[in-house]
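dumping this here so i dont lose it
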């Protein structure tokens, strides 16, 4: 049986191997030595090595004493009462999700070799995919909030860059900007929670914070609401979910692994990891239930009204993630974890199959000998024409959520930003004028 030191090093391959692969591809690109065959080989080797290390480590952990295992790699930075440690936490939840990440990355790399063959961005895609894999594994295996935040930011950065993968068109660039703004806004919640945990519990280590929360006074509601807010943006929950359909501008492979299976569930995983802390806040639990329920209903209706397959799947994904929020709010953590893994696998397959969605639908209908929509169409026709038109309009416009955000949030913030920009320009001009006068006086 492997000792804890050996376990730490083999499990660390899960995030380290993809990160090393990304560095190698970046060096090959800089030296102009990258070809599709070489890049694909490096990517698959890195992903395979990471998966092998994770598999060996998880087998060693399962064969050892029962319970969570914290693996330390020392301190990255310490000073003034603050210690940033690189710790990994292995338990049933992180083991399941980490294995899922490795499997889906391996499948995506194999699929993308043929799917992106001779695409101008082939090498760039694999570089970003490896960075994403490293960030996602760091997020899942993190033993403290700081390391989780590092993975969280890497996942966000690569997500934005892949949404704007086809940057020669204006649509993907606008969509990537929307994703970036939403991510940065909700990162405030994660940063606030981290600072608050250090301020009141003097640690952001998950296991230590769980114990300290039982004995030390701390603002559980404030921290809980901050974490829920961060998860809402990352997992496309009401009212911040407008970016998810826009994220479909990227390649199908990135839509599958990012917004169908892994990245969109990062917020759910954050809440699962912080669940022992969230149990101390009734307000945070209530917010999860309310936000999740509203998202589930609105997104399910929008999915039915969407005119294209990828948008319909994106809304359906947000709807199921909303149900996971509800499950966590009610304390059903095991159910939420199983739901996460099963839903990620299903959506991954569905997103990869979207180019063949019409062919699949026709084949199913031919096999059944009838139209699948018959029963639903009959029930829909029972509603009055005015009601059907109203419900359809509201569903396709997401119940005017985007309009309200544009009018009452985006425009005021942009107006304030422009005013601050003009003020800054004037202050800089005045400062420059005063410096010129001072220099002239000295002469």
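and the seq i came up w/
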């Amino acid at each position: 049986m492997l000792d804890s030191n050996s376990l730490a090093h083999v499990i660390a391959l899960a995030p380290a191997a993809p990160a090393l692969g990304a560095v190698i591809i970046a060096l090959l690109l800089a030296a102009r030595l990258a070809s599709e065959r070489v890049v694909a080989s490096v990517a698959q080797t890195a992903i395979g090595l990471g998966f092998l290390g994770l598999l060996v480590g998880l087998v060693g952990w399962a064969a050892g004493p029962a319970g969570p295992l914290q693996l330390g790699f020392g301190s990255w930075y310490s000073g003034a009462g603050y210690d940033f440690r690189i710790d990994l936490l292995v338990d049933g939840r992180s083991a399941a999700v980490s294995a899922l990440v490795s499997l889906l990355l391996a499948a995506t790399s194999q699929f993308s070799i043929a799917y992106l063959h001779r695409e101008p961005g082939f090498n760039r895609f694999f570089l970003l995919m490896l960075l994403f894999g490293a960030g996602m594994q760091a997020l899942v295996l993190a033993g403290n909030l700081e390391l989780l935040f590092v993975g969280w930011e890497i996942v966000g950065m690569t997500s934005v860059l892949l949404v704007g993968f086809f940057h020669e068109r204006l649509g993907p660039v606008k969509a990537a900007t929307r994703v970036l703004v939403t991510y940065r806004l909700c990162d405030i919640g994660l940063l606030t929670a981290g600072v608050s945990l250090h301020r009141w519990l003097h640690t952001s280590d998950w296991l230590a914070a769980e114990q300290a929360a039982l004995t030390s006074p701390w603002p559980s509601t404030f921290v809980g609401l901050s974490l829920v807010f961060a998860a809402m943006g990352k997992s496309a929950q009401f009212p911040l979910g407008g970016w998810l359909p826009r994220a479909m501008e990227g390649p199908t492979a990135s839509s599958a692994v990012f917004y169908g299976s892994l990245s969109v569930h990062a917020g759910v995983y954050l809440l699962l990891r912080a669940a022992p802390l969230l149990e101390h806040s009734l307000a945070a639990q209530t917010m999860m239930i309310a936000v999740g329920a509203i998202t589930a209903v609105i997104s399910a209706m929008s999915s039915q009204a969407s005119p294209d397959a990828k948008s319909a799947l994106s809304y359906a994904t947000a709807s199921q993630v909303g149900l996971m929020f509800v499950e966590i709010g009610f304390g059903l953590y095991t159910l939420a974890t199983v739901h996460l893994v099963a839903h990620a696998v299903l959506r991954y397959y569905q997103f990869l199959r979207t180019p063949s969605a019409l062919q699949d639908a026709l084949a199913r209908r031919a096999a059944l000998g009838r139209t699948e929509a018959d029963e639903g169409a009959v029930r829909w026709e029972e509603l009055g024409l005015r009601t059907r038109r109203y419900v359809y309009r509201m569903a396709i416009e997401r119940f005017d959520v985007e309009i309200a955000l544009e009018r009452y949030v985006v425009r005021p913030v942009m107006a304030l930003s422009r005013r601050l920009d003009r003020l800054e320009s004037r202050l800089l001009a005045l400062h420059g004028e005063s410096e010129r006068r001072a220099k002239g006086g000295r002469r």
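The CA atoms of residues 298 and 398 lie 7 Å apart.
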